[in-house]
């Protein structure tokens, strides 16, 4: 509640009333404010609350002060509420009814309903941010008597001052964000250097490294990812780069492919490889070009493109006959299968399961029933 300022409730030039709702009670956090029911007014620039009985008691808060807001459903004996989370109070804020508060949020309790429309219109205003495109150009006269506050800067000078203040605040936030990012990059580089150092020691067996320590170091490196990822900086560009990348893919993907039945979608390969490479991310184009070279370089993997256009990386030893036989056996055992059911049985992705079923259908072992319930495969009895 210390974010509220006294107001006369009048709209400024360039400010438009959006919606108003009677029977609204104010809460300071979870505490009910000692005020009667009032009218909540939402304008393009402010949230205003005015006491129904005492019209001189009128409060307002700029929409720019709001961080986010959420609905709180009604309960037994409790009315629906809108919880509004706010930025800290500015030192230059105009006087208000409360000097400080232990809460960083307020609540609007709707005793006479209307919270759904109010929430919808508040969402629209917070999305459009019309207070930024049409800044107010007239002073807000404060309340009467002891509630009188300071006069705001007006006209072109006031607008320029506000724009400059907002620019400085934005620059500060950006600087802090990049400072944190720079610290993260430094730590990441330290981890990469550490992994390379350990890898070199294992390779050259420098120092007193026992066999047990070597195994332990290798397990650490495996959990951290690829110790020396192939990059354009270390291996140039073009064909040479893609050939070196293909070799590294051949070493890295063999074990995961064996665990997944000998085949993996190219999208899964992309995620797996980039997770292991850490900061040295790989582009989809480079991955595809490297995978195209797997077979020509006589590596144990190859890139395969199904008739539907789905691309997979599979082991050279992967048998298509075994894949078709597996699909047929499972369909015969269950009577019929969808791609989703087949995926659960084999522990594969739905995409690859469907391709296996389509492959078995292509050679005539299965037939399909394409209905409103989806695509289902049956043994071919014809």
Commentary on this structure:
- Belongs to the VPS36 family.
- The chain is α+β, with helices and mostly antiparallel strands.
- 43% of the residues lie in helices and 21% in strands.
- It is built from eleven helices and 15 strands.
- The strands form three sheets. Strands 1, 2, 3, 4, 5, 6, 7, 8 and 9 form a nine-stranded antiparallel sheet that branches. It has a three-stranded antiparallel sheet with strand order 10-12-11.
- The protein is elongated.
Provide the fold topology:
Blueprint: E1 5-6, E2 17-28, E3 31-32, E4 38-43, E5 46-51, E6 58-62, E7 66-72, E8 81-86, E9 105-110, H1 115-128, H2 130-133, H3 155-204, H4 211-224, H5 232-235, H6 239-259, E10 263-265, H7 266-277, H8 284-292, E11 301-305, E12 311-315, H9 320-334, E13 337-338, H10 339-346, H11 350-362, E14 366-371, E15 374-379
Antiparallel strand pairs: 1-6, 2-3, 2-4, 2-9, 4-5, 5-6, 7-8, 8-9, 10-12, 11-12, 13-15, 14-15
Helix pairs in contact: 3-4, 6-8, 9-11, 10-11
Subcellular location: Cytoplasm; Endosome
Protein name: Vacuolar protein-sorting-associated protein 36
Family: Belongs to the VPS36 family.
């Amino acid at each position: 509640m210390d974010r509220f300022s006294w107001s006369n409730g009048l709209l400024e030039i360039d400010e438009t009333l959006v919606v108003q709702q009677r029977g609204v009670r104010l809460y300071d956090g979870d505490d009910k404010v000692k005020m009667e029911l009032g009218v909540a007014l939402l304008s393009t620039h402010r949230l205003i609350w005015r006491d129904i009985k005492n019209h001189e008691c009128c409060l307002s808060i700029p929409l720019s002060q709001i961080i986010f807001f959420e609905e709180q459903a009604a309960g037994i004996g409790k009315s629906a509420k809108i919880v509004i989370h706010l930025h800290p109070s500015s030192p230059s804020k105009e006087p208000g009814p409360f000097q400080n508060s232990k809460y960083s949020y307020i609540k609007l309790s709707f005793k006479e309903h209307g919270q759904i429309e109010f929430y919808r219109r508040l969402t629209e205003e917070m999305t459009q941010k019309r207070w930024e495109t049409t800044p107010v150009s007239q002073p807000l006269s404060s309340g009467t008597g002891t509630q009188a506050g300071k006069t705001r800067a007006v006209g072109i000078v006031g607008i320029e001052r506000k724009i400059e203040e907002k620019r400085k605040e934005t620059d500060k936030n950006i600087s802090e964000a990049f400072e944190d990012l720079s610290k993260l990059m430094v730590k990441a580089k330290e981890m990469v250097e550490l992994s390379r150092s350990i890898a070199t020691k294992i390779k050259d067996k420098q120092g007193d490294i026992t066999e047990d320590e070597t195994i332990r170091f290798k397990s650490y490196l495996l959990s951290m990812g690829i110790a020396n990822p192939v990059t354009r900086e270390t291996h140039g560009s073009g064909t040479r780069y893609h050939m070196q990348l293909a070799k590294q893919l051949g070493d890295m993907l063999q074990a995961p492919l064996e665990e997944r039945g000998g085949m993996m979608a190219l999208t899964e390969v992309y995620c797996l490889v980039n997770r292991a490479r850490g900061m040295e991310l790989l582009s989809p184009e480079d991955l595809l070009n490297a995978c195209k070279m797997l077979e020509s370089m006589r590596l144990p993997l190859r890139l395969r493109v199904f008739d539907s256009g789905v691309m997979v990386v599979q082991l050279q030893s992967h048998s298509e006959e075994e894949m078709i036989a597996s699909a047929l056996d499972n369909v015969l055992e269950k009577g019929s299968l969808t791609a989703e059911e087949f995926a659960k049985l084999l522990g594969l992705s739905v995409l690859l399961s469907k391709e296996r079923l389509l492959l078995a259908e292509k050679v005539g072992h299965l037939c399909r029933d394409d209905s409103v319930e989806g695509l289902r495969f049956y043994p071919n009895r014809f």
